[in-house]
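Intended use. Records like the one below are meant for learning the mapping from a protein sequence to its folded structure. Do not use them to infer anything beyond what is encoded.
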Amino acid sequence: MPDRDRPLKIVLIDASPERAAIMEQGLRDAGHTTIMRITDHVNLLARIYAIDPDVILIDLENPSRDVLEQMFQVSRAVRRPVGMFVDQSDSASIEAAIDAGVSAYVVDGLKRERVQPILATTISRFRAFAKLRAELEQAKSQLEERKTVDRAKGILMRAKKIDEDEAYALLRKAAMNEKKKIVEIAQSVITAAELLG
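Structure written out for the chain above:
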């Protein structure tokens, strides 16, 4: 994710020198100086990984389905803010761009003065989606941990003929004694039950 305290390293993917010049000038006008341009799609993903940019801007005049899909693959793989500029589009391409994680999909919007606001929007949307993704992953993880603990409690309740609170107290005590998380102890209980069962 881009660091707010240092200059952005921007990769511009554009085969057209004229279009790239407009984009680069818009970026320079906004104070961005670290801009690397890629003019073709050969080994594109490897080249992007080697550069390790903060932001990727893709400028496509009239992209074919194959080129669009390749750009969407880049967007899914790199986990960076991606802004895509196209001259023409359709609803299927827009939907595919959103599914691929493109932060900004701009149709017929390549004007020098629009580059900086679009760049700022691209980064802002990426950060918002990254935060949501992290929160979702955390919620999934917590749910999985809870399922593991509940399953272990059930095993202890059946094996020791105790209630749920007592089973949880046993798990918590073992976790404290072994300086582990309750979920780790719960997983050990489940593993032991599977081995013995």
